Fold:
Amino acid sequence: MFSLMRNGGKRPFDSLSEQEILALAISSEEDDARIYLAYADQLRADFPQSARVFEDMAEVEHTHRNLLIERHRERFGERIPLIRREHVRGFYERKPDWLRKNLTLDQIRDEAMRMEEGAYRFYHEAAQRTSDAATRKLLGDLAMAEQGHEQIATMLGEKHLPEEAVTAEDETKKRQFVLTYVQPGLAGLMDGSVSTLAPIFAAAFATGDTWSTFLIGLSASVGAGISMGFTEAAHDDGKLSGRGSPLKRGLASGIMTTVGGLGHALPYLIPHFWTATITAIVIVFFELWAIAFIQNRYMETPFWRAAMQVVLGGSLVLAAGVLIGQG
Structure:
């Protein structure tokens, strides 16, 4: 399954020591400051006021970093452990530089809001896991400061795009819907649709028996759904990533995985082999293009890239199943 290898090697947040939490906070503030300065450089020519806002936000991040370094020096000395976001499970991942180029002001505003929301959740959770009073106070203060940053980013978007602005509540609901349902559901639909193609069509052409093929497709789909659902629910509790309830995400992923496999298994309830097989292939065609459309619509994946990944890849898997079944 595609998701079984996600987050391989990453540490759970609960396992971090107080020193590692401070080290992680320091590296996170450094990364965010650099990102804000990159946004400022990108916006300076067309939106100089917005660029100054991001420069100010970067300066605040540097101030937070200095406070955290001083606290680490007082508690643990000069040597700061090397630990970054990508080493810890559940963090909202920052996009690399090449994916942030040519973003619109509205897209930059949305990205900044996600960054600050993630930083707030991190500091809030980190403060709960710290026993030292001074460190806990610092982390709590930083959590409140990150909430203020989110308000700045919201006002920034409303100032420059008033005709397109929507309420913060609607934006939050839309973003939460994508994180909690669309992303895990899409991953499940992809896994269920693609991973079951080879066994179903291999069984169909190997046996020529529609009922046996249906049972194999049903078992593969249900098994994949259970596996994907448990994996999605277990790998991230949603507290740091903001992706919402693990139960909801697990159900979305598991159900859509099962649906993706059943789509081309159900036609084999038709007794006539070629009628069932042609119907299943037609359904596969629509399934793969629907996945490509969803990726483009909700995940901002260029349509041609989504088509290459899903449609071409799925077609190759289907062809492999047919060839194996005829062999």
Q: What stands out?
A: Residues 1-7 have pLDDT under 50 and may be disordered. Residues 266 and 298 are 28 Å apart (CA to CA). DSSP finds eleven helices and no strands in the chain. Residues 169-326 form one domain.
